[in-house]
Amino acid sequence: MVKIRDIELGEFPLLLAPMEDVSDPPFRTLCKQNGADLMFTEFISSEGLIRDAAKSVMKLDIYETERPVGIQIFGSEIDSMIQATQIIERTNPDIIDINYGCPVKKVACKGAGAGILQDIPKMVRMTEAIVKATNLPVTVKTRLGWDDNTKYVVEAAERLQDVGIEAISIHGRTRKQMYKGEADWTLISDVKHNPRMRIPVFGNGDIDSPEKAVEYRKRYGVDGIMIGRASIGYPWIFNEIKHYMKTGEHLDAPTLAQRVKVAIDHLDMSIKWKGETLGIAEMKRHYSNYFKGIAHFKEYRMKLVTSYDLNEIKDTLNFIAENHEQFELVG
Predict the structure, then answer these.
(1) Are 246 and 234 in contact (CB under 8 A)?
(2) Of 24, 37, 161, 246, whose Cβ has the fewest other Cβ atoms within 10 Å?
């Protein structure tokens, strides 16, 4: 049984990665319903929380049905991260997660996210300060290093454990790689097999099929897998991986009617949480994946991603469901 403090996550947990403008409460709820074991919020700016910025505060929302859930924060100033931790603790998440992995320029080049990988001693000091500032379990998500010359993740993970983190998730790329090339899990495996490591080590990067999940579990020996991009518009991936791990067989892919139902549920929850304008806008990134591999679908996909009229969008989705026999699943 993999545990983060007293939070039981199962024998081989599947985690939903924190993704900006994706990992919101509606999407997390769908992933939970489809087998994800641990959720993380979109990353939240420590400075935004301190200033009470509406967008940052909104990201603190948690649905009880999605627990256990970790709230993820990022920042470059230790004092600000401590204050943000104290604000977060009052919202009662299960975990506080520190983002040391975001590669985006506006974050990393200010010394936050993956930017702190250029200063491991500060990374350790910041982590220790956050651990001391909360009674909640603290976890970390990070990368292999800043670039190919600074892959210090084995040493860094051990030092972070020593100051009190209770799990670590590692993306198998450097900051310089962004999301390009193939993720390298060999150093993730080195972290896991370091005899001094006692905490769960989760691998992240390029897991997009049940077969790859099984292969990487066997090859690298991690305690669980964090899934990001492959879940966008396809929350079924968690149960598909679990079923394949248990039986060696594939679950049937969701039918077109099932895809439409989940897309409508997602749209409704998104509007309820964010309001109609923003809820409709942020759903657009999901439609291509909800209907990936459907032949002769371009016309309907264009309607879904270009329309801002709720009735028109729902009419399009209902038409697809009612006429599902005219569409063919080709991949």
Answers:
(1) no
(2) 246
User: In this structure, which CATH number among 3.90.70, 1.20.1070, 1.10.1200, 2.90.10 belongs to the domain 256-326?
Assistant: 1.10.1200
Q: How far, in whole angstroms, is CA 256 from its chain's centroid?
A: 25
Strand partners, 329: 294
Per-residue pLDDT in tens (0 to 9) along the chain, 331 residues: 999 999 999 999 999 999 988 899 999 999 999 999 999 999 999 999 999 888 888 888 888 989 999 999 999 999 999 999 999 999 999 999 999 988 888 888 788 888 999 999 999 999 999 999 999 999 999 999 999 999 999 999 999 999 999 999 999 999 988 888 889 999 999 999 999 999 999 999 999 999 999 999 999 999 999 999 999 989 999 999 999 999 999 999 898 889 999 999 999 999 999 899 999 998 988 988 898 888 878 888 899 999 999 999 999 999 988 887 777 665 5
Going from N- to C-terminal start, the domains of the chain cover 3-247, 256-326
> What are the structure tokens assigned to 14, written together?
């599947």
Give the span between the Cα atoms of 290 and 293, in whole angstroms.
9
CATH of domain 3-247: 3.20.20.70
Helix axes 298-306, 310-322, angle to 10 degrees: 160
Residues acting as catalytic residues: 102
183-214 per-residue burial string, b: 16 or more CB within 10 A, e: under 16? bbbebbbbbbeeeebebbbbbbbbbeebeebe
For residues 240 and 254, give the distance between their C-alpha atoms in angstroms, rounded to a whole number. 10
Alpha carbons 175 and 72: distance in angstroms, whole number? 18
